[in-house]
Design a protein that fits this description.
CATH topology: Metallo-beta-lactamase, Chain A
Number of strands: 13
Strand content: 15-25%
Shape: globular
Subunit structure: Homodimer. Interacts with PTCD1.
Bound molecules: zinc ion
Strand order of the largest sheet: 6-5-4-3-2-1-13
Protein name: Zinc phosphodiesterase ELAC protein 2
Cofactor: Zn(2+)
Number of domains: 1
Number of helices: 12
CATH class: Alpha Beta
Structural class: alpha/beta
GO molecular function, one term: metal ion binding
Catalytic activity: Endonucleolytic cleavage of RNA, removing extra 3' nucleotides from tRNA precursor, generating 3' termini of tRNAs. A 3'-hydroxy group is left at the tRNA terminus and a 5'-phosphoryl group is left at the trailer molecule
CATH superfamily: Ribonuclease Z/Hydroxyacylglutathione hydrolase-like
Helix content: 25-40%
CATH architecture: 4-Layer Sandwich
Distance between the termini: 70 Å
């Protein structure tokens, strides 16, 4: 049947068929399921961290520009039943919430949204903020609440130039939030008085909020949240391997780290001030992170990132993926099934990498010959 209306028609069966048509997918899925079962069994017998909070939902896991499978950066951190936090807020963050949770649940999520943290001012990390702010206001109004509590915005202070200009030229938004510049929350140079810092932490149920400059563009930050219940989550934002981040993230339960490039593109990663997957994993090891989730993949890995191997404490983030701490130990088992599911894209990437390696080798040889001639 041909659909001629403009209504969106979802056909999950088509996507499932596409997966099952991949020769290696079915056995890889079965193997994943049995490993998952074994791991769950194991966990029931241990005293691993459990519970449904914090839960982490990835709203966008791609770098630069959105595409069909990975939106730009956005992470919903549900701290407890009634408190949410969003880390980075790329374009379409609100759309992703609606798509994943539906209107009613989205309204609930936004009414429980206490804070938004913006790591730096590249558009793919903050341009969705205003849309989210306006949607949050509407969510309160729809529930008959007109005295909307102010959202806490933690961001590089320069974001105010853009937000004030929007407020002056389009519609009022400045009454909907209070801002604390990330610069004021640096762990090695706290510029808030103790009372304001304690007050901020207590509003977010945190024991500590630690921030550091990271190595990306001017005023790029990394953050670590230590909750009053004892758990700790660190988030890199965009950065090259950064010792300041290692310091503030020490012994965290989870590090969410960007891994924009494959290992073979270390030079490109350096030029663009990002990390390769191995560098990101190493940062996690240096800080003794219990688990590491990789995100912010270059759109060249829109389907599945290219990895040499995936260590047991490391997982790959996908859009619409929600995980609790208790899920983290099982994530690395998924990789094989994912590679089988996206086999064609994966093979294409391997081919491109091989070509790049060969071209690099040729250049090296050429330079060597020229050097000898001189
Ligand atoms: Zn950036």
């Amino acid at each position: 049947m041909v659909h001629r209306s403009n209504d969106l028609v979802l056909c999950p069966e088509t996507y499932l068929k596409e997966c099952y048509d991949q020769e290696k997918f079915k056995p890889a899925l079965l193997s994943f399921k049995s490993k998952l079962q074994a791991s769950l069994q194991e966990k029931q017998n241990s005293s691993d961290i459990s519970g449904n909070y914090p839960s982490i939902t990835f709203l966008g896991t791609g770098s630069c520009i959105p595409n069909k499978t990975r939106n730009t950066s956005g992470i919903l951190l549900s701290l407890s039943f009634d408190k949410n936090l969003i880390m980075d807020c790329g374009e379409g963050t609100y759309g992703q919430i609606i798509r994943l949770f539906g209107l009613t649940k989205s309204d609930e999520i936004l009414r429980k949204l206490s804070a938004v943290y913006v790591s730096h001012l590249h558009a793919d990390h903050h341009i969705g903020f205003i849309r989210l702010l306006l949607a949050r206001r509407k969510a309160f109004h729809r529930a008959g609440i007109y005295n909307v509590p102010k959202l806490i915005l933690l961001a590089p202070f320069k974001i105010m130039a853009y937000l004030s200009s929007y407020h002056a030229n389009f519609e009022p938004i400045l009454n909907d939030f209070t801002i604390t510049g990330n610069q004021k929350l640096l762990t090695d140079g706290l510029k808030l008085d103790q009372e304001s810092y304690d007050d901020l932490c207590s509003q977010l149920d945190m024991k500590r909020i630690d921030m550091t400059f990271v190595i990306h563009c001017p005023n790029s930050f990394g953050v670590a949240w230590t909750h009053k219940d004892g758990w700790k989550v660190a988030y890199s934002g965009d950065t090259m391997p950064c010792s300041g981040l290692v310091d503030i993230g020490q012994n965290c339960d989870l590090l969410i780290h960007e891994a924009t490039m494959e290992d073979d593109l270390e030079e490109d990663a350096k030029i663009k001030t990002h990390c390769t997957t191995s560098q990101a994993i190493q940062v996690g090891r240096d800080m003794n992170a219990r688990y590491i989730l990789l995100t912010h993949f270059s759109q060249r890995y829109a389907k599945v990132p290219l990895l040499e191997d995936l260590p047991a404490q490391v997982g790959i983030a996908f859009d619409n993926m929600t995980v609790c701490f208790k899920d983290l130990a099982t994530l690395h088992h998924m990789y094989e099934a994912l590679v089988a599911m996206f086999a064609e894209d994966y093979d294409d990437m391997l081919e491109k990498t091989a070509k790049k390696r060969a071209a690099r080798e040729r250049l090296k040889q050429q330079a060597k010959v020229e050097g000898e001639v001189q």
